[in-house]
Amino acid sequence: MVLVTSCFLQACSMNELTAVKAVNEIDSSVTQQPHKTAPTVTSTPSDIEVKIAKELRAIDEMLMLQVPAGIFPVGQYAGEIALNMDANPPLEMYLDDFWIDQLEVSNAQYSRCIEAGVCQETPYEYDLAFKRPNYPAVAVSKGDAEAYCGWVDGRLPSEEEWRYAAGGAQGLIYPWGNEFAMGEANFCDKQCPYPFKNTNYDDGSVRTAPVGSYPNGASWVGAMDMSGNVWEWVKDWYPENYYEGSAFQFPSDAKTDGLAGSLGGSWLDDNYGLRISNRLVVVSNYRSTYIGFRCVSDVKP
Ligand SMILES: [Ca+2]
Ligand SMILES: [Ca+2]
Fold first, then answer.
1. What gap in Å lies between CA 7 and CA 290, rounded to an integer?
2. Which of 163, 178, 181, 258 is the most buried (most CB within 10 A)?
3. How far apart are CA 228 and CA 180, in angstroms?
4. How far is 116 from 114, CA to CA, in rounded Å?
């Protein structure tokens, strides 16, 4: 097993790199089993017309989207080169329906939680440009994000929920399809201060963008900015014992020193970093201007 950094150098200082690990290889010779047996279904969201229910969550005025129950691939992604630890072998997983925030939680919404005495001001110092009301709340630790999601009677999404809401039953590489498309997300465009920036395109955002600025990049349920803008905390890696009995192993310290995951890439990542299957792994109290979050709920808000 080889451990490598999953954040790109552009997004990680040397100190940060010491906290960032990911696994990029598994032994594909071992047959792995989904943790949950899918019920018999005659159709999935990929072959029926999906009507997504929407409900406003009153406490923070977040629009939530109902993700229909279904089966989706958690292993091989369509046409994707098997570079991530999740990319092989293909597995199918069934998820019951759940509700997910349409947008990344904004500064204005996070401020309400602070005013309610539940959330804390971040101790992390960063540029005022990130703090405008309709921009995504950043510099939040995983604990900060969990506190907010608890305040709205929700929780952070599991990794599977996040990926299903983003890539659907087809297991798309990006929320909008299998090819990177300019104009669908805020990423490291020509204004980005890093050498790997895409010099052919100006996405209009030097750093974070107001939440929901790229509606053309919405996922199949209508969730926006799932790829790009800010990485998003998830509550766990995979269900407990998901890979039990297989050759797969998480990093030995993954469950002991608070390493946590976030998904989707950010304004600091190139198109490769924005893939749904990509994963940033950091310590759970990590804060940066490229990590935010959204919440889910098992029930209608
Ligand atoms: Ca950008
Ligand atoms: Ca995002």
1. 11
2. 163
3. 12
4. 5
Closest of 233, 222, 238, 236 to residue 266, by C-alpha: 233
Tens of each residue's pLDDT in the chain, 301 residues: 222 233 333 333 333 333 333 322 222 222 333 334 444 444 445 445 678 999 999 999 999 999 999 988 765 444 444 444 444 455 678 899 999 999 999 999 999 999 999 999 999 999 999 999 999 999 999 999 999 999 999 999 988 899 899 999 988 989 999 999 889 999 999 998 888 898 988 999 999 999 999 999 999 999 999 999 999 999 875 433 444 433 334 333 344 345 567 889 999 999 888 988 887 878 888 999 999 999 999 999 9
Q: Give the number of whichever ligand sits closest to the CA of residue 136.
A: 2
Instruction: Please give the sequence-ordered ranges of beta strands (E in DSSP) within the chain, or none if there are none.
Output: 3-4, 22-23, 54-57, 62-67, 70-73, 92-95, 98-101, 231-233, 259-263, 279-283, 291-292, 296-297
Domains of the chain: 55-301 (3.90.1580.10)
Q: How far is the CA of 49 from the centre of ligand 2 (A)?
A: 26
> Which ligand sits closest to the CA of 174?
2
CA distance 279 to 86: 10
Ligand 1 centroid from CA 133, angstroms: 19
Ligand minimally distant from the alpha carbon of residue 186: 1
Place of tokens 């110092």: 125
